[in-house]
Amino acid sequence: MPSLSPRQFLAPGLALATILIAGVFAWQRTEPTPIGAAAASAQGDRHQRIDTTSPLIVRFSAPMDEESVALHLTIDPPIDGLAEWKDKQTLSLQSIAPLILSGTYTLTVSPEAQRRDKAVLGKSIVIRYFIAGPPKVTQQIPPPSSDTVAPTQPVTIVFDRPMVALTTISERSSQFAKWPVTVTPPLDGTWKWLSTTTAEFTPKNGFASGTKYSVSVPTGIATLSGEKTTEDFSWSFTTRRPKMLRSEPSNDYPNASPKTEVVLTFNQNIDLASADNAIQLIRSESGKLSKEVLAAM
Questions:
Q1: 183-229 pLDDT per residue, tens
Q2: Is the domain of 234 the same as that of 256?
Q3: Are residues 66 and 117 in the same domain?
Q4: Element (H, E) at 238
Q5: Is the CB of residue 182 less than 8 Å from the CB of residue 233?
Q6: What integer pLDDT is reported at residue 10 of this predicted model?
Q7: pLDDT greater than 70 at residue 4
Q8: Which of 131, 157, 189 is the last residue of a domain?
Q9: How far, in Å, CA of 295 to CA of 280, rounded?
Q10: What is the span of the domain harbouring residue 211?
Q11: Checking CA distances to 198, which of 1, 34, 110, 126 falls within 20 to 30 Å?
Q12: The CATH number of the domain where 153 resides is what?
């Protein structure tokens, strides 16, 4: 498949304007494909975070006329590189030089750009690419070093860019078949995507009380566009310990009868077997505790 420069690819008299505005690109053709019926527009986020070596990707919702797109596409600031149609609806623009870190590149396809059926877009497509470097975790729940986490609290990881397609969020088992994120100590549970950027782990039977857990996110996790995390990321949290909130009768209650039931209320579910060994009813005389154990609770 030969590469064509904009001068070769576009109609005479129009190539120079494209070179000056959008930079110099070598364009690669794709074979003709059947025309779709959907209206042409850009799919996905109009504000994208990408790495310095990542291509600018435009995904149209209908097959596009490649020559028309080349004529009506601009990038600000201009870049030089290779323009390649991955398929009839996906255009990749790969810069020769690394993109400027923390810079923003604005890609515009004007309303006059045509689909393969020669219908025009009718409105501009504008996508802004922020050069953020490699993908990374931007938020984690529970917060790092928190020590009062409820045993039923899920673990949530938020990435700075889409990791999965919106249409596949509900496909839980297949999405996490090779998911490398780990929770230690290990326990049964289920991962799921809450959105294209957010993954959540829910323990099957809850976390153990008063236990420190660590979550590890290794390098090499791929985003939707193929970029991969380049740094290990981890954090720890501790679940809250059991705590008695109140007792009935209350402390120093003077009117309890021999038949009064003792009721203890805790901040979470308590394992009754361990409570039997830890809670005791002891006779008190004149404010002093005797060694006589009356009952185990």
A1: 999 999 999 999 999 999 999 999 998 899 999 999 999 998 899 99
A2: no
A3: yes
A4: strand 233-238
A5: no
A6: 34
A7: no
A8: 131
A9: 6
A10: 137-238
A11: 126
A12: 2.60.40.3710
Q: How far is CA 287 from CA 252, 264, 278, 284, in A?
A: 9, 21, 22, 6
Residue whose tokens read 């290779």: 82
- Same domain, yes or no, for 175 and 119? no
Cβ burial, residue 108 (10 Å; 0-12/13-18/19+): middle
Token pair belonging to 225: 């566009």
Burial class (CB in 10 A: 0-12, 13-18, 19+), 213: buried
Residue 258 preceded by cis peptide, ω within 30: no
So what's the pLDDT on residue 285? Answer: 65
153 and 177 part of one domain? yes
Q: pLDDT digit string (tens) for 19-76?
A: 333 456 665 554 433 333 334 445 555 889 999 999 999 999 899 999 999 999 999 9
Same-domain pairing of 33 and 93: yes
Q: At which residue do the structure tokens 């830890």 appear? A: 278
Do 99 and 211 have their domain in common? no
Residue that has been written with the tokens 């409570």 in this structure: 275
What secondary structure does DSSP assign to 49-114, as a single string? EE-TTPPEEEEESS-B-HHHHHHHEEEES---EEEEEEETTEEEEEESSPPPTT-EEEEEE-TT-B
What gap in Å lies between CA 52 and CA 46, rounded to an integer? 18
195 close to 168: Cβ distance less than 8 angstroms: no
Based on the domain organization, do 21 and 118 belong to the same domain? yes
Angle at Cα 69 formed by Cα 68 and Cα 74, nearest 5°? Answer: 125
* Paired tokens of 276: 């039997």
Domain count along the chain: 3
* 34 phi and psi angles, rounded to 5 deg: -60, 145
Same domain, 177 and 230: yes
Q: Which of 214, 247, 250 is nearest to 233 (CA)?
A: 214
Domain end (from 131, 152, 175): 131
